[in-house]
Design a protein that fits this description.
This protein has helices at 2-13, 24-35, 42-50, 55-67, 107-120, 152-166, 182-190, 205-211, 221-225, 227-233, 250-268, 297-310, 323-333, 367-376, 387-392, and strands at 75-78, 81-85, 124-129, 137-138, 149-150, 172-176, 195-199, 238-242, 274-276, 314-317, 337-339, 380-382. It is of the alpha/beta class. The chain has one domain (73-397): Aldolase class I (TIM Barrel), CATH 3.20.20. A ten-stranded parallel sheet has the order 2-3-6-7-8-9-10-11-1-12. A two-stranded antiparallel ribbon has the order 4-5. Strand 6 (172-176), helix 7 (182-190) and strand 7 (195-199) form a beta-alpha-beta unit. The radius of gyration is 20 Å and the shape is globular. The two termini are 22 Å apart.
Length: 398
Amino acid sequence: MFSELLPGILERADAIGGEPPLSRTGTAELADKAAAGESLADDEIFSLVNGLSEPENAEVVLDRARAQRRPNDDQVLLLPPLYFSSICENTCAYCDFSLGGGTRLSTSGFQREIDVLMELGYRSIELVSSQDPDLYVHCESFDLDDQRFDLKGAANYFEILRSSLGTNGGGMITSNIPPVDIDSFRNLRDAGLDCYLVWLETFDTTQYRRLHSRYGPKGNQAYRLDSFERARAAGIRHVAGAFLKGLADWRREELVLYLFDRYLKERFGRGFSIIGTPRVKGRFVRSGAIRQYHMSDEDYELNIALDRLLFDGILWLQTRESFDLNRRLIDAFGGGVILTLTSSTAPGGYAAPAEVISQFPVYKQNLDAAVSALRDDGLDVRFSWNAEHLAACQRNGA
């Protein structure tokens, strides 16, 4: 399991910024190798990331990412989140759901949300929920190190969405839900799950413990890390991962994410299908626990450029960022990305203005104007896409 390798990887990652940077020429050679889809050795990926503190090396990465062309990079695949519960037994310091006052959508309320998104044209939807103890019910044998759930409640939402997609020409279900056991992943696969997504928050074990209660299921970092392997073992073809930018040193996190992606490729023949790009937003940004790791727009753009070079998976640009920033990133580095334009991070927020707490703030965007702007830029904006479209936008036939 990858969690067993993490301590050794973190020990190496801790040296980033403390060793002499690579030359501009050396950086260019590694950036070219990565852009060609070749796997970097451990020392190579370390040297590339370690050298990014030098402005001339950072500019090399930006230049290579601008010049590179990814598969179907005239396409933008739209993906809205659909929250069905914000009741959570975890208490993550940076998540507004920890403030309490959550809600769970009824079957009819959930269907109304689906209908709104369908009316807008969406056929690929991300199902999102908190760790709702009445949907992710602890089995009698539940243990923090061996978390087993009765998932009938959560699976019902997947089945409803699958049925709605089926009667409207088909589509794709991605999920951002709590990690579960292999049998539960099989149940979700049978209920329609195409791509399992989980944000890993931070790989830094000390910071992870600081930001998460050790009493909730999410307190077990290893269980979260190893959830991708359980999902793949359960027959779920696509997995998506990311770290939450701004919780720890992003360069160290990027190194670990790359090695994680390579580990999945070596074990399963395919790494992350989607690489997320979330950045901390909201009330927690000013916290002393993360202030030193604040990620500027310049570093964010550099991280996106590096992602474009390193990963075969498609990048997901999100409404935590403004449309203007996302459009600028697409203009600089190309399409072949997922983008969220329509977004509510509270259950019930599409059919009516949300009256409950949102998970984090998002930029409110004019959907028609944004789509028109992207199409004016020569991009093929797709509301309807599926797992085959996702695979076609990945490098190396991933």
